[in-house]
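Kindly inspect what follows.
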Amino acid sequence: MKRSEIRHLFNLVPEIGRFRRMLGDITVVRLAIIAFGFMLLSAIGFAFFENDGKPWIFALADGFWWALVTVATVGYGDTYPVTPEGKVLGTLVIMGGVIIMSAFTATMASLMVERSLREGKGLETVLLNNHLVICGINRNLNRVLEELALNAATHEVVLVNNMDEEDFAALKENYAGKLELRFVRGDYSKEAILRRAGITSASSVIILADTFGDIPTGSLVDDRTILTTLTIKDLKPKIRICAEIVDEEKVDHVRRAGADEIVVQGGMSGFMLARGTSSPELPMVIKTLSDTDSKVKLASRAFPSEMIGMNFEQAMGKFLVDHSSVLVGVFRHEKGFSLESMLADGSAIDVFIREKLKESKENYLTEGKPTSRLLMNPGRDYVIKKDDLAIIIAGCSSSPA
């Protein structure tokens, strides 16, 4: 295999890639060379002092095995020195092994702590595959993460922005066990920063309208979104991009730049962006139902009088047959509760209680505030009431030829 092919395979597995980079540290390399040299000298000494007539190559092999298990503080006991000189050598090897293993353990721990600190500061290169990259930060970031935690196909998420280290630590703790969050600090429109986020091995990207940064206007925020989209598509043309914009007039520009899903910033943008990466059909459904020019619309209307008393299943069938509409829910109005309604049969005891309540001058008899509830798909046995409103999908899409 060519060197470039071997390097490519090496980078495919994140754990191997991290180990390779750790071995690149000069301190680890020096320790490895020192440990190998120490074991080789120990093996030669063992073969010299403890050779009981074996060929030199076999004695050296036994010596290297003994040195390895002694330096590693394992000590199986299958091979050990018996001569006085060999025992002196063994004492030196044991002490040297303790020193070498202590130094190696301390160095590895130090490297791991340093790497963890760099990751927390957003300075490390991400080594993941098929992960999601979120570029930018605004008030919708938490909503996007909440949706991803519940519905995402992948739970490995890389955040690319300029948030504080403490803010990222709080986010990581908040979504522990739900999302595996990584952080890359920097300007996400720059190619070098995107490469550190592993954009070429990512499965999808969400670009938030970063109004928390140093960009003063919504127009400039959208311009950076367009630039970021172009850069990402240049690095990985087939990646899926969901972009949030501030100015609706920039939709066509962002689409020409290569964004697959575009959401105008608003109350539902967090949901739309998160679902746009894993379930792109759902944002399309919502846009269609809310589009004023669409033939199919979400609407509400009073139930026809003949449907009052029907159950939800019967009313659903009636709407479909008579009105070419799909009943999806009920908006229910409920009158407030009052004692007056309970004391309305005119009996002597009811009259007595009503008079006593009036004498108390407390407002016990007046009706409470009415309440309203939205019941989406309330169940087939729900009974339609007089004051209920029907939530329907009205109109029909033209069938494909």
Notes: The chain is about 50% helix and 15% strand. The radius of gyration is 36 Å. Residues 1-17 have pLDDT under 50 and may be disordered. The first strand starts at residue 132 and ends at 135.
